[in-house]
Design goal:
Strand order of the largest sheet: 1-2
Order of helices and strands: HHHHHHEEHHHHHHEEHHHHH
Helix content: 55-70%
């Protein structure tokens, strides 16, 4: 329980200093790192012919973001297809999973969208060169691009009568130099200190006491492990991800990476409040996030701490330890499951396929709600503000006034964008889930479980892909052409479809003037608005996904 309290307290406590630092970085204000980083920044601008003083329209910003992501996807795809001819270990005899075109395309899209959905075992598929130069590099670049889009969205709400929302290349460079690179370097060194390997050595072989030969994979693990969490990417060097002792060796590293996942996205609420001049509005959003996180944590803990029904009557004490590491226990596993499913980081440390139905329900709902609790780096803040705008719209209907938020009117154009954003996740997730359960290629992935649990595995896969999360329930065999293609569609929609709508809304708000607050305006920093937002999240989530949840984890829970 102490873990739960300390993590929440640290996330909230660090939100202000980190949020203020982010605001200073992206508003071009002085920071302590400027003497070192400013010359590097200017060098990069000259090398890539970036004119930092030239800002972009929302359309130009979106095109730059899409082009940058497309180039990154293409380069990674080529690298993956050619990896067998590239230098570096491990020995080819250990790479038992072939890198087919559909798997390479799925993986390239996965890492360029920060999803890092992995339909393969990393140690049995990837060379060291591909892991570091391809996957780790994309963790930096895609994470920085997401942070840039989040800042541009905030900038759109903060400006009046403006046709621009910043310069994508400037935001990208500053996200890399001032935020991700320093923190990743420090965090990776701590991981090495705790026992995470960082080498290019061949896999070790050891004879077990029973006689068989065991292969122990290693490599440049620390280069990938911290940035995957800091950039809210997820994925992992090993198939077992954060449950592997070389990726996450101690309870301390487990707690550290959870902070790396949650602190930056949570701090974006403070950044939002500072850049818009509505600081209490940012804190109101953070309070809603913490309330939702705490509620989900309580339900999941109760579900996993209870003695499983299968063990009833056997005089066994304790909760559900199936699929969990002893060194983390139920609490460390549940905490990691909540943090990763709320963010866009599928860096799980336990097998969610073994969770109780109510435990799985919490994780699934977290992803279906669309990153409104902390969320991904940059994406979390505009996801929460989008649902806040839905709440403001409903409140405006009740009093018969044009809804407003932080002095910006939510008119017909803005309402259409918010509606499209809200409906895109259920549209993509439910349609792809229906396609999978209604076709033979989709059902062929259910090699272990069927019925309600099998349906949950399929729904979980598409929810994870759409949320750019990447975690999965291991009972679904997803390395097929069908799932490699359909999960890629969900990843693209979750990353670029939602980001394009967010930037369009930012441009619409930036072009408006700021309206004065009147007696009929719903205050953006009031407890009433917080309650409205909380209720809207529950209402919209139930209206969109309750039938699917009833067919999956709820039905499984009732059958026990």
């Amino acid at each position: 329980m102490t873990q739960y309290i300390v993590l929440i307290a640290l996330v909230v406590g660090l939100a202000r200093p980190v949020g203020v630092f982010l605001a200073r970085v992206f508003e071009g204000e002085p920071t302590v790192f400027d003497p070192i980083l400013r010359p590097v920044e200017r060098l990069l601008y000259r090398a890539f012919r970036v004119r930092p003083a030239q800002e972009m329209s929302p359309r130009a910003y979106t095109i730059a973001f899409l082009m940058f992501s497309a180039v990154g996807t293409a380069v990674l795809l080529v690298l993956l297809l050619l990896q067998r001819w590239l230098p570096g270990g491990p020995d080819a005899r250990y790479l038992t999973t072939p890198m087919t075109l559909d798997l390479a395309l799925n993986t390239a899209i996965s890492f360029s969208t920060t999803t890092t959905w992995q339909a393969y075992a990393g140690e049995a598929t990837m060379l060291y060169f591909a892991q570091v130069v391809g996957l780790a590099a994309q963790n930096f670049l895609a994470g920085a691009a997401g942070l840039a889009v989040g800042i541009a969205f905030i900038r759109g709400l903060s400006r009046d009568n403006s046709k621009t929302i910043g310069n994508f290349w400037v935001d990208l460079v500053r996200a890399l130099l001032w935020v991700l690179l320093p923190l990743a370097l420090l965090g990776s060194l701590v991981m090495v200190w705790q026992g995470v390997p960082l080498n290019a050595a061949p896999y070790a072989e050891a004879r077990t006491m029973e006689g068989p030969l065991q292969t122990i994979a290693q490599g440049p693990v620390a280069a990938l492990e911290f940035i995957k969490n800091l950039g809210t990417n997820g994925g992992g060097f090993f198939n077992a991800n954060g449950a592997h002792p070389y990726a996450n060796p101690t309870p301390f590293t487990n707690f550290l990476v959870l902070l790396a996942i949650a602190v930056l996205p949570a701090s974006m609420t403070v950044t939002f409040g500072r850049m818009t001049g509505r600081r209490r509005a940012g804190w109101a959003l953070l309070v809603v996030m913490v309330v939702l996180f705490t509620g989900g944590l309580a339900v999941c803990h109760i579900a996993e701490a209870a003695t499983p029904s299968q063990l009833a009557g056997l005089n066994l004490a304790g909760g559900n330890m199936e699929g969990k590491e002893v060194r983390f226990g139920i609490e460390g596993s549940v905490l990691a499951a909540l943090v990763t499913s709320n963010g866009a980081t599928g860096s799980y440390n336990s097998m969610h396929d073994s969770y109780q139905p109510l435990g799985v329900l919490v994780l699934l709902v977290n992803m279906l709600l669309g990153e409104v609790v902390f969320g991904g780096l940059g994406t979390g803040i505009y996801s929460m503000i989008m649902i806040a705008l839905v709440a403001v719209f409903l409140g405006g209907l009740m009093v018969g006034r044009t809804p407003e938020y932080i002095g910006k009117k939510v008119g017909p154009q803005e309402t259409k964008i918010v509606a499209l954003y809200t409906l895109m996740t259920p549209l993509v997730v439910l349609l792809l889930t229906a396609l999978a359960v209604a076709t033979d290629p989709g059902k062929a992935g259910l090699t272990t479980n069927h019925g309600a649990h099998g349906f949950t595995e399929i729904l979980f896969a598409y929810a994870s892909s759409m949320a750019n999360n990447g975690q999965n329930m291991a009972g679904l065999s997803a390395n097929t052409v069908f799932y490699n293609v359909t999960t890629a569609v969900a990843m693209l929609a979750g990353r670029f479809g939602l980001a394009a709508l967010a930037l369009a809304l930012a441009g619409s708000f930036a072009a408006q003037r700021r309206w004065p607050t009147t007696s009929g305006t719903l205050p953006s920093d009031s407890p009433m608005l917080g309650a409205f937002v909380l209720g809207t999240i529950v209402l919209v989530g139930a209206l969109c996904f309750l039938p699917a949840l009833v067919l999956g984890p709820v039905a499984e829970w009732l059958q026990r």
